[in-house]
Write a structure and sequence with these properties.
467 residues; mainly alpha; four-stranded antiparallel sheet; 6 strands; 62% helix
Length: 467
């Protein structure tokens, strides 16, 4: 594989822009941890084969979204791309200028893709604070385990409540990001999220006090640490706000729009949308509980093996709410975070096996780099698209290794106690006490199993001469 020591981000951005049909073909441009995500007016103008030949790890359409896999340098490429294209950061370019080109057929596939795109767009900006929260919690655990600071020390108490703030105030934060994603007023989105965790509401729900608004009963539920209820509410609010804006006198719009929007959204949110979102979240949690209770370790093993395909479909960020819900409800996530954790180590080890076995100097260098990317920062796409999926047999080796590690995790009930990116530093999230005292030891053993099986399987399956 041909690689250069340093990419010319401006030149790469210019080439990408040319191969997608230029700026006028862009509806919006965003990025996640590894991918440049573009919604285009005319997908037919995107030359995927030409984009694949550029200095990128891969390219694909997920639903109506073009995803260009960049890897660890996504921030540099994104900055260069929006500069080259003359776009504002996360700005939305005017859509449907021709009146028809961007309309979607109401198929199950398109609806599902839109739902995933909506959730992903609202969750991605949340990841930095979740990761930071997880690391801070891990630091507190290490301080306590090393007897450097007691659990009730001022330092631990302060670090804990700051880390917990990311989860407790999640509806407020997500409300703002969701409003930005759906083109609504950011302040209104955050305010709607804040209302769901207002102390008065929380207290009345806890005491079992009956609530109503305009005579409509309010569904009593706790929304702290939730994501789906506020995303659903803000999505609906974006349409209501635009409708009110279009039909308000210009002179009074700044007054009428926020007030009427909120008056409409208060009963909709508390009596319908947020409860539906809470029920959906509960449904996810119940489904996972059912799968785990009926199939136990088999579920963990199979999902660990399937993670690369979840990532390839661009749906990996959509699993974050499930992991968050599990940690918030039970204190431990035994499925989502552990499976991504094991998969990254297995993918990295498969890349390492390729690096050791191949005679090609360029491939060897890239495989070593990809192994590091998988295991240390936890970025899997470069190795997955450039090594394991490309040569197929390393992918099988990685999946076999992840399944073996998942089997051990499932049998021992090992899980992540905090939200951390699936990399080498995530071991800190498995340090526990009490009933979770053996969690860290089992995590180490499970990862070692994944590493060993993945390495052996890839060394046996991968044939350099068949490249």
């Amino acid at each position: 594989m041909k690689r250069t020591p340093k990419k010319n981000y401006d030149e790469l951005s210019r080439q990408i822009l040319e191969e997608i049909g230029g700026k006028d073909n862009i509806i919006n441009c965003a990025h996640c941890i590894t991918r440049l995500r573009l919604n285009l007016k005319d997908k037919g103008l995107a030359n995927l084969e030409r984009i694949k030949s550029l200095s990128v790890a891969g390219v694909q359409f997920t639903g109506d979204q073009l995803q260009i896999i960049i890897g660890n340098e996504i921030n540099e490429v994104y900055d260069a791309f929006i500069h080259t294209a003359g776009l504002e950061r996360e700005a939305v370019v005017e859509e449907n200028l021709d009146g028809e080109s961007s309309r979607k057929n109401l198929t199950v596939k398109n609806i599902f893709s839109s739902v995933i795109d909506g959730i992903v767009g609202c969750v991605i900006p949340l990841l930095p604070i979740l990761i930071a929260s997880g690391i801070i919690k891990a630091i507190v655990l290490i301080l306590q385990q090393a007897h450097i600071a007691a659990a009730d020390s001022p330092t631990c108490l302060t670090l804990n409540f700051v880390a917990d703030a990311a989860f407790y105030f999640m509806p407020v934060i997500v409300g703002g990001f969701a409003a930005k994603k759906f083109g609504a007023n950011t302040a209104l989105g955050a305010m709607l999220g804040a209302s769901l965790i207002h102390p008065t509401f929380v207290s009345m729900v806890g005491e079992g006090t009956s609530l109503s608004v305009f005579g409509i009963p309010v569904y009593p539920a706790g929304y702290s640490s939730t994501i789906v209820p506020i995303i659903l509410s803000v999505w609906v609010m974006s349409y209501i706000e635009k409708f009110i804006s279009r039909h308000s006198p210009k002179a009074l719009r700044s007054l009428i729009e926020p007030v009427v929007t909120l008056l409409v959204m208060i009963p909709l949110t508390f009596c319908l949308l947020a409860p539906v979102g809470a029920m959906l979240s509960t449904g996810f949690a119940n489904a996972l509980t059912w799968l785990y209770s009926h199939f136990g370790f088999i579920t963990v093993a199979l999902f660990s093996a399937a993670i690369p395909w979840v990532v390839m479909c661009g749906m990996h960020v959509g699993t974050v709410p499930i992991a968050i819900a599990a940690i918030a409800a039970t204190g431990i996530d035994r499925l989502m975070m552990p499976c991504f954790f094991l998969s990254n180590f297995a993918q990295g080890t498969a890349c390492l096996a390729v690096a050791i076995k191949t005679k090609d100097a360029n491939l060897k260098s890239f495989a070593f780099t990809s192994a590091f990317s998988n295991i240390v920062p936890g970025i899997s796409e470069p190795g997955m698209y450039g090594i394991t999926l490309r040569y197929k047999t390393p992918m099988w080796g990685a999946m076999i290794g992840a399944a073996a590690g998942g089997l051990y995790f499932g049998i021992t009930g090992t899980g992540s106690l905090t939200f951390l990116a699936p990399n080498i530093f995530a071991f800190a999230g498995y340090i526990g006490s009490g009933e979770y005292a053996g969690n860290f030891t089992n995590a180490v053993i499970g990862v070692i199993i994944a590493l060993a099986v993945s390495f052996i399987a890839t060394m046996a399956l991968y044939k350099p001469e068949s490249q």
